[in-house]
Structure formats: C-alpha cells, structure tokens
TrEMBL record:
Name listed for the protein in its UniProt record: 60S ribosomal protein L27
GO cellular component: ribonucleoprotein complex; ribosome
Keywords (A to Z) from UniProt: Ribonucleoprotein, Ribosomal protein
Organism: Mollisia scopiformis (Conifer needle endophyte fungus)
Protein family membership: Belongs to the eukaryotic ribosomal protein eL27 family.
GO process terms (BP): translation
Coiled coil: none
Length: 135
C-alpha cells in the first residue's frame, strides 16, 4: 500500500489492541517467510497518559504522563491509516523483525519506545496521537 509508509499513524481495528493508535515503523508490502501476507511492524500505546491540569504537582504530572507502549506485527487488513504522521527516526533501528525472537530484546525495544513516546508527549508535540479514541 503506497500510503502505509514509515511514520504514518494508523488505528488498529481488530484484536486485543483494537482502537489503539500506532505508528508504522517498518512496512512490508509483500510479506515474508514468517508472515506471508502484507504487514507492518508497529509501535503503539497500550495505556494512554492521563489528563493533567495546572494545579497538579510536578511529581503528579510526571506520574500521569507515563505511557505504556507495545510493539507488534500487524496485517494491513487490520490497520486503518490516518492523515497524521509521527517522526520517530530513533526507533527504526531499535524495532526490527529480529526483535520478536527473544523476550529480552522485546523488553529492551519496548523500553526504548516508551522513552521516545514519553519525550514526545512531554514536549507537547503530536497531541492527537496521545489521546485515546472515543467511540
């Protein structure tokens, strides 16, 4: 699919993470041996940050702006692309097809994704990506 490029924000439509927003890290239009269908490697938000108001203390604000990420291989049929993009250059090397082979690698990748997303959230960019879908 020509519009499922790196950095495109999509919404998952099926399964455990249905309705969650993800950013495409590595699209695979043709499929490969382990996943013989068009799919994408995505990083998304499992638990969105809570709402923050000005009156809250710094510690409370920090606690409420935590993000729980996930990484996953998802079939194109279960992705709905949006008009938004999210530049995450740092993640391209971190999350690869090999990341999923070993649990420890997966955990490390998740930590890196978490750090990147939380930095992005606290800087106030891409506000829409960090709000849960309401439906």
């Amino acid at each position: 699919m020509k519009f499922l490029k790196i950095g495109r924000v999509a919404i998952i439509t099926r399964g455990r993470y249905a309705g969650k927003k993800v950013v495409i890290i590595q699209p695979q239009d043709t499929g490969n041996k382990s996943h013989p269908y068009p799919h994408a490697l995505v990083a998304g938000i499992e638990r969105y940050p809570s709402q923050i108001t000005r009156r809250m203390s710094k510690a409370r604000q920090a606690k409420r702006s935590k993000v729980k990420p996930f990484i996953k291989v998802i079939n194109y049929n279960h992705l709905m692309p949006t008009r938004y993009t999210l530049e995450l250059e740092g993640l391209k090397g971190v999350v690869t097809a090999d990341t999923f082979k070993e649990v420890s690698q997966r955990e490390e990748a998740k930590k890196t994704v978490k750090k990147a997303l939380e930095e992005r959230y606290t800087s106030g960019k891409n506000r829409w990506f960090f709000t849960p879908l309401r439906f």
